[in-house]
Every structure is written in C-alpha cells, then in structure tokens.
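Weekly sync notes, structure subgroup
Attendees: PM, AL, DS (notes)

Item 1: joint prediction request from the bench team. They want all two components modeled as one assembly rather than separately. Inputs as received:
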Amino acid sequence: MNVKQNFLRLTGIAVVAGAMVAVGSSSAWSWDAAEFQKRIEAGKKTEGTTLIQYDAQPNYANWGGVTHFFRQKYGVRVPPDMKGSGPTLAALLREQNTTVADVAYYNALVGLEAGEKGVHQAYKPAGWEKIPEWCKDPNGMWFCVHQGVIGFIVNTDALKKANVPVPKCWKDIVDPKYKGLVAYDDPTVHGTAMEAIFAANLGAGGSTKDFKPGIEYLKQLDKNVLRYSRDTSYNPTLRGEIGIWLHADGSGYKMKWEDKGPIEVVIPCEGTVSVPLAMGLVKWAKRPQLAKAYLDWLLSPEAQGIWADSYWLPILTEFMSPQAKERMKPLHGTYDLIKSVSIAEKRSMIGDYRNAWRDQIRRQ
Amino acid sequence: MFAKDRIAPLFYILPLIVFFMAVMVYPFVDMMIHGLFPSQEMIEVSGASEVAARTLGWRDLTFGNYIAVFTDPFYRSSLVLSLVLSAVVSALSIALCIGPAWLLVRRDFPGKRAFRAILTIPMAFSGIIIGFLAVIMIGRIGFIPQLTRWLVGVPVGEALAYSLTGLGIAYIWFQIPRATLTLESAIRKFDWDLDSAARSLGASNWQALRYVLLPLLTPAIVSTVAVTFAVSMGSFGVALLLLKKASVFPLEIYNQIYANLAFEMAGAMSVVLGVITVGINYALRKYAERYYAHVVARG
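Output from the run, pasted for the record:
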C-alpha cells in the first residue's frame, strides 16, 4: 500500500472530512457530499426512490448496514436480494432487457464473466483510477469494491490448551502437533473455501498454472483437518472446537471485536490471496442516473468506511477509519503479503482445481 | 341410501386427499419432471452455464440425471452410505429399545410415565440440534473426552462426532423414541395368553422365547424397521454438522440445491430417494403381514 498524500479541495462547499485526492492520478477526485446530494435528488425526481441490486444479502459484507445508511441519508431504498454471485449472473442472462436490476454484486470471478457475457455496460465511477489495476476491468465493465483476505483465524485458547504455538506460515500447520486443530470449509460448496485452497497452493509453491503443489500440500494437511464443513465454521471456531480456520479475515475480526472471543488473525508468511468482490452496472438498468450515483457512492469515504468498520478491507484503504485500521491488524503477517493475482488466471484454473480436490482429498 | 353410504366417506377424506395432492403428489411429479432436464451446474465461482441463457424445451429431455445417481461415484457412494447407515441404525436402535418397550407394556414401575416422556425428547429435536449435541458431547473438545482426560488422563471419544461411528450414535439417539414407541404399541397387541399357554404346557423360558415370543415379535420388529429406516434415509441435519468428509444422500441433495443450484439433479435424486425408501418400506410391511398371517395360520 503506497502512501498517498492528501489535499483538501477548496470548492467552497462543505468540505467532507474524508475528502482526499490521490497524487499522480490525472483526474483529481474528491468526495463532494453536497454535489452528490444534488445528483441524488435529480435522480429521484425522474427515477423514483428504489434502486435494485442483485445480490444484496443483508448479512453478507454488511450490505444491510450499507443500504440502510444509503436510505437514511439519501432516501433511496436498495432492497435486500438473496441471490448469490452465480444466481445473479444466471438471472441477468435469462432476463436480459426485462430485468429489474440496475446494479449487480459478485465475487469478482463471476463479475469478470458477467462483463464478458455482455450483461453489463461500461461505467467508470468516481475514484476509478485509484482502484488497483488487477481489480477492475480496463473498460469499466466491473470494478472491485472491497475484499476479504484469506488467513488463519486462530482460537488462541484452543491452541494454548493443546500446548501449541500460534502458527505463522502455511508450512507450520501441516506439523502433526496441529492434528485435529485445523479446519476449512468444503471448497465444492463455499467460494471462500475455494479461495483458501487457492491461497494454500500459492503458499506451497504452486502458481495459477500449476495446482499440484497445492493438492500435495492439502493431502498432508488432511491428516490435521478436523472436518470440511458444508455449513459454516464460525461458531465452532469461536467456541474452540476448531483451533485454526482457514478463511477470510473479516470473520476473525468480527469474532474478536464483536463476539469478544479469544481470536486472532494470522496472514501466513508465504503469502495469501484476497477474495475481491465487484460491482457492475447492468446493461438494461432502468434507473441509470441513480445507479451511477450509487456506484460512485460505494467508492466514497462513507461506504468504504462502513465496510472497513465491518471488517471488510475496502478497495480504497485510505478511507479506513483509525479504529478500523487498529482493529484489522493481524497478529502475525501484514496485508503486504497479499499477492496480486490476475482474476482471469485464477478463474481459468479453479474448476480443475476444485475437481482435483474433490477426487483426491474428499474422496479418499 | 346405497349411494349415500358410498359418498359420505368420500367427504370425510376429501380434505386429506386435497392436502395430499398438494403437498405430495404435485411436488413429486414436479421433481420427477425437473429431473428429466439437463442439470445446469452453476457453481458460485465458475459462473452460469450456457444452458441458463435459454429456455429448455421438450427436446432437452434426458434420463442423464437419473442415471448419474447410480453411475457417478459421489452420488452412488453417498446413497450406499445412507442405505447401510439406515439399516445398521435401525437394527441397533431396535436391539436397544426392545427391552424398554417390553418393560413399558408388561411392568409397572415408579416413574414409568416420566420415563416414557423422557424417551420422547429426541423426537422434539431437529437433526441440527442433535448434531450440535453430538459435537458438545463427543466433539474435539466434547464433554466426554474432557471428562475422561481429567479422570484417567486420556481423552476418550475425542472428535468421535466426525467419524461414521459418531454419526451412527447420533442417529440411534434420535431413533430411540420412534423405535420404543412403535415397538411398545406392537407388543401391546400381543396375545399374551399364547405365552402363558406355552409355559403351562411345559415350555422353558428359552423355548417360549424362541417358538412363541420371537415369531410374534417379528412383525413388530419389521414394522419398526420400516419406520426408523425411512426416517434415517431422509435425515440430513445431523450429517450436516458431523462427518469429516463423507456424505449421506439427503445432504448431497441439499448440496445440489444450495451450492450448485442444480435443481434438476436435486429433483432426480429426490425421486430416487423417495422411490427407494417407499419401496423398501412397502416390502417390509408386506413381509410383516405375510409373516403374521403365516404364524397365525400355523399356530
């Protein structure tokens, strides 16, 4: 994360505390709340006060909190929508120009596919140039809004009782002393678990072209794994039934700060990957004015800040509050260990890797 | 007069027929037809398939899903596991419950009513709660391993919940009330005079058991197997929380819907599960009836 210098922009209108501009970007951008309010009001006049987002699950990535804030402050309702990434794309492909959706949210792997299949229109929201290159489509078909980072969610009490230290690296947890303490969810069921074994592959020396090291590593790890849950491992980890859960970091911080559990997050020393989540503007959006404003807002200090406060690493990390920065701190490792992986390359191997996992790990 | 006798009973059962059509026949036929269309595998990260973009027509009909249930090693192994598990669990729960059922019929003892009430507790719990209880008792940091570690220094049953044995124990636990109550009502129907008659004719305990009680008990046991087997075949909540990596058939169906959104595959699998379970149930009951007729005729 390169340090960014901030300038206050003197527009004469109310200056928002978080207004910042990245040095070096050609089009200087800042969050202008008053200007935004005007745009929203204009949009509401012609397009109404409801905006439809496919895949807006209130309990996932705190969409409940994000959409609630948007409604309270700007008077536009974004109703909950329980489709996941796959169903969202399937619905758009099926509905085409009859769709009610204006914007859509996906795991970036699916977002990329949605862009390719032509269900989006190009839109580069304000703040676009600050999103890292690997996390957006060069033409603006989709862009990332936040990410989860794969790490070890560690129950320190459970490890203390088992007399083992908190692991720091992928290679640590295959040691027989961690027998029965490790768990990750079934990657054929959970997308995040798929990303976890993807990270394990890179940690074990594999690449986006070669997952053999990953499978060999996971075979070894299998001896230490308690189970491959098809449910969630959140509560078992919080209780200490599971000592080390390979999962996205946010669940760990939530356990630590909201549930006050004996939980720490470790970013493994060999490196990890993030699970990027992306938005796209639907090609047939019936409320384009509001949709564009909303997409801009999702990259604003407000929305990005809400995500950071709910333990999702925002794509524009500069908008994290000091408290969020303090709370989202791994016990070992840092977020510099995130490897930037091309989403297209990741996608190209994931199907085969998943099948290999099913055939060689689950089937044994 | 004649017509009225014929028609009146129809009115009594009409609500049930309507209800039955709505909740059983219609969904079953719907699933059966769904199962005839190609599966649209749409796993989260791989995105949607091409098939999803167009509407399916009659030309797409296929038995592929039904065949896959028996040829794909994953579906087949989970189906086999379900069948074996349900059979073993039925046998063990009957062995465990036949004594208590007999006691409930034949003996009066203090606290009998409370005993019967306690026996039905597992019936009120869903599979997920039972799975959770198993984790609490015989999980990695379960009560039993913790207690034995404290008492004798060795944890007994550590992480047992995630093995097949642990799953079997959990299944038996929720079968206890069904097995006991079904056996109890069957035993209550016994003609105990036959037992007394055999004894007064000089039969020993063993002879009375072997030649009188067991033949009389067989239909009761078979119909209890029919009930417990069917319930075990359909249960998936317990397995969702237990088992390291193996999977039971209903859990695979759940997976098809929630993870793969393959409603077609799920439909075909549900139909297979339904047909197998109902078929076995029917055969068992037929057998019990025949056996009973045979014994009575002979006796």
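Discussion: Chain A touches chain B at residues 84-87, 89-90, 93-94, 107, 109-110, 113-114, 158, 161, 180-181, 186, 188-191, 194, 225-228, 230-231, 236, 239-242, 347, 350-351, 354, 358, 361-364 (CB under 8 Å).
Action: AL to compare against the crosslinking data before next sync.
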